[in-house]
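Table S4 entry, Beta sliding clamp.
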Amino acid sequence: MKFFCNQKALMHSISIVQKAVSSKSTLPIIKGIYLEAYEDHLRLVGTDMEIGIDHVMEANIIEEGSIVVDARLFSEIIRRLPDYEVEVSLQENNQLLIKCAATEFNILSYNASEFPELPEIEEDQIHEISQDLFKNMIRQTVFATAQDETRPILTGVLMEIEDDILSMVALDGYRVALRKGKLNAHLNNRVVIPGKTLNEVNRIMTGEEDENIKISLTNNHALFTVGNTKLISRLLEGEFMNYNQIIPKEFKSRVKVNTRSLLDSIERASLLGKEGRNNLVKFSITDYKMVINSNSELGNVHEEILIELEGDDLQIAFNSKYFIDALKVIDDESVYLEFTTNLSPGIIKPITNDNTIYLVLPVRLSSY
C-alpha cells in the first residue's frame, strides 16, 4: 500500500472517523483506524463495535492495499506535520512509513483482516431530511436523554416516522423533549437511537442547506449518510415509554413570557439553589407578573418578570436545571408555559408552532 494526499485533508478525515474509535478497548485493533487505498480514494473506518464511521477521501494511490494503524498515534503524527503532501507506504514487518517534507515516521501497524467489518445496511429504503433541520431536532431533544445506564432505553432518542413527519422524543423520567419535523419518507418506522450516536451524527453534518442527510433503518441498525461519510449505529432494544399519554392535552393556567427574560431570571435564581433540594425554584404566577424565588442556607433570591396570564393564578416549583435546559434550545422570542395544578407536569413550548414541546415534572411545594 502506498498513497499521497494533502496533510490537512488527511487530518480532517482522521478527525471524522476517530470519533467512533474506542479508547477503552483492550484490543489494539479496536483502537485503530482502518485505511484502505483503492483506485483514487482512501477509505478510513473507525468503530467501537456500537458505532462505526466510514469516510472516503480523494488520494493519489500508487499501490492499493489496506492496513490498521493506532488512531491516537496516527492522528497526533498527522496533526503535527507541516501543510505539505504526505506520503504513506507499508514496509516490511507491518511498518508504516509516513513522510512529509523533511519528516519521517516509522510506526507499527496491524493486519487489516483482523479489523471488524461494519454491518451491511440495505439502502433501498432511504429517508431524507434537511441537515439544518435535523441538527436542530437533535439539539432540541438529545439533552433530555437519561445519563445513567439503569434504564438503557432512556439513554436514546425515539425516532418515530409516520408518513412525512419525523417525531423525535427524549425523556429521563423527570422531563420529556418532543420535536417534530418534515422529511421525505418511504415507509413508517419507530426506532430508538442512542444519544451518543445522534451527537456524533450532529458533528459529521456539514449543515449545508442544499444537501440532505440520508437515513436508512433496519431492525437492529441505523445508517446515516452525509456526503462521503457514513455512520452506522446499533439501535437500543426495549419498549419506549408512551409519551403521548404523559403530555397533558388541557391546561388551567397559560403564561406567555419572553424566553430570554425567563431564562436569565431562572439562571440567577438557581445560583442559590441548594443541591440537596435539586436546585429548586418556585414560581408564583398572578395576572401580570411571575415571581421566582429560591432559598438556601446561603440566602434567598427574588425575581419578578412581566407575563400575560390566561386562566388561574398558581404557585408551583421545579428543578431549575430542567427549565434552563429546555429554554436554552428554544429559538422563539416568547414561550407559553402551561399548567394544570401544582402537582401536574408543566409544559414549555414556543408560541409560533406546535412542533416543539417540553414537559417538566414539578417538585412538591411542601418540600420547599
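The longest helix spans residues 259-270.
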